[in-house]
Amino acid sequence: MKYILILLFFIFIYGCEKTKKESHSFKQVSVVSGDKNANPVIDKNVLIAGADNVEVISYALRYKWDTINDGDDDVVRIKPILKNKKLNVSPAGIKDRVILNEKLRQRLFNFLFIEKCPKNYSVASCYDPRHCILFYNRKKEIFATIEVCLGCSTSYGSEGLNYNEMCIERMSILHKIFEDAGVKYFGENEKL
């Protein structure tokens, strides 16, 4: 009986160690919208520190050029940003594509997970995103995205991705991160 208890103890310890090691692998955070195998929560440390690359893209209003008509109802829809863990946006519409260096990745991490909106903050009612943050794993697959409208401080992130609220009072920080990375297009003079 004593040996059985010792054996069970070691099996339990080994199982815990294996689970702990696996919780930081990319397989555990391969969350993309519509992915049937998606994990419901993306760990913020893996999102920034574990991403092989973090890219920011900018584009004109997608509803004007990146749409599909997928039915008989004559309704035109914006294409999903991802398809099979790859970017699903027409390359012709992309204005900028920049990879964040380590310093900018840390600033982005602070913006997303540490810095917060003030107690009384503002948001607008529009949602005209012109930028998207893409998180790549080592296989060059996109495992998370955040599409953002800098004008109204509204964003849409991958399912299970929890980050601090965005508000108008903080948007200048994100704008500056994008600008410092080399993004030139911010939708100026674009007709709605």
Describe the structure using short key phrases.
192 residues; alpha+beta; 9 strands; 27% helix; Lipoprotein
Can you tell me about this structure?
By secondary structure, the protein is α+β, with helices and mostly antiparallel strands. The chain has one domain (24-181). 27% of the residues lie in helices and 21% in strands. The chain is built from 4 helices and 9 strands. The protein has helices at 2-22, 44-49, 102-114, 171-181; strands at 53-59, 67-69, 76-78, 82-83, 86-87, 94-99, 131-136, 142-149, 154-157. The strands form 3 sheets. A 5-stranded antiparallel beta sheet has the order 6-1-7-8-9, with no helix packed on it. Strands 2-3 form a two-stranded antiparallel sheet. A two-stranded antiparallel sheet has the order 4-5. A hairpin with a 5-residue loop joins strand 7 and strand 8 (142-149). The N and C termini lie far apart (76 Å). The model is unreliable at 7-40 (pLDDT under 50).
